[in-house]
Design a protein that fits this description.
By secondary structure, this protein is mostly beta strands. The chain contains 1 helix and 18 strands. The protein has a 12-stranded mixed beta sheet with strand order 2-3-5-6-7-8-1-16-12-11-10-14, with no helix packed on it. A 4-stranded antiparallel beta sheet has the order 4-9-15-13, with no helix packed on it. The protein has a two-stranded antiparallel ribbon with strand order 17-18. This is Glycosyl hydrolase family 92.
């Protein structure tokens, strides 16, 4: 079987101070992001850079959709994942810690039930072996027992994810239920551009959040495939595979937008940022490259990636 790679580009802009640049040299070969991911260290091994705006890392599970393997979603002894989320913090001394927004999961096989109803993470999660996992400075790779692989890398303000399937599959974008819970999430699907945009209210720290509580933040995002894909939405506990046709579709959470992958080299463009409306930040990202990326360039203010090769 020929592998079907899917490229996902994620760009985050900041409503914060401009990050300080940091020189990166050959010393990065000494970095082991897995250090601290066991024994209550509460670190995560995913792709992140110093002063970077994105921390793309796996969300582990011990069989409970409302919890994770550890405070920052990853524990070395929890070898099952249900997605790869875009935000994390290191070293939280409590469970749950924070972050874990908008996890993305490559799923192999047909979808015959709603992912929302998979409360024990039995169907829409996958085991993995540490022998198939590699973490290094700015990059994280893992092969799942489902046959799918995830290869994540980041620059200061952007992330690139390459998802490969043994056969055709689906990318599941969970837009609510962040690590500490979430509410007031919404999704808009535009069939004219096959784009998905929306927002989620999340935040809090060291405990499940409550509406109107302290330390809240609203994250806005936009996902846009470069090629034609079939988009579905699964709502609540039932199977609701609605395919938008001519009109724009707007729904409220909890939702799973799903991109049905039937082609090779599918590229999905995405923007996301806490606190700034998506209309203000659409395609603001201008930096997306990595040392082993042969081609990356900017088109009309947005990031366009042609092909990734190891």
């Amino acid at each position: 079987m020929r592998a079907l790679p899917v490229l996902l580009v994620t760009v985050l802009t900041a409503a914060l101070a401009t990050p300080v640049s940091a020189a990166v040299g050959d010393d990065t070969r000494y970095v082991d992001p897995l250090i601290g991911s066991a024994g209550g260290g509460n670190t995560y091994p995913g792709a992140v850079r110093p002063f970077g705006m994105i921390s793309w890392s796996p969300t582990s599970t011990r069989g409970d959709q409302t919890g994770t393997g550890a405070a920052n979603e990853y524990a070395y002894d929890a070898t099952r994942v249900r997605g790869f989320s875009l935000t994390h913090v290191n070293g939280a001394g409590c469970h749950p810690g924070a972050a874990g927004d908008v996890p993305i999961m490559p799923h192999v096989g047909e979808i015959t039930s709603s992912p929302t109803a998979d409360t024990r993470d039995q169907i829409f999660a996958s085991d993995f072996s540490h022998a198939d996992e590699k973490a290094e400075a700015g990059r994280y790779r893992v092969g799942l027992k489902s046959g799918a692989t995830a290869d994540l890398s980041v620059t200061t303000r952007a992330g690139i994810g390459e998802f490969t399937f043994p056969v055709s599959g689906s990318l599941l974008f969970r837009t609510s239920n962040s690590l500490n819970g979430s509410e007031d999430a919404d999704i808009t699907i535009d069939p004219a551009t096959s784009s998905v945009s929306g927002s989620v209210l999340t935040g809090a720290f060291c405990g499940r959040r409550a509406n109107g509580g302290a330390n809240n933040q609203k994250t806005y995002y936009r996902l846009r495939p470069r090629h034609d894909v079939r988009l579905y939405v699964f709502a609540a506990l039932g199977l609701y595979p609605r395919t938008p046709s001519s009109a724009e579709l707007h729904l409220s959470s909890p939702m799973f937008p799903r991109a049905r992958i039937t082609k090779k080299n599918i590229t999905v463009l995405a923007t996301g940022t806490p606190g700034v409306h998506v209309r203000e930040t659409r395609w603001n990202g201008r930096e997306v490259e990595r040392p082993w990326l042969p081609e990356a360039f900017v088109e009309r203010g947005g990031v366009l990636v042609s092909r990734l090769e190891g």
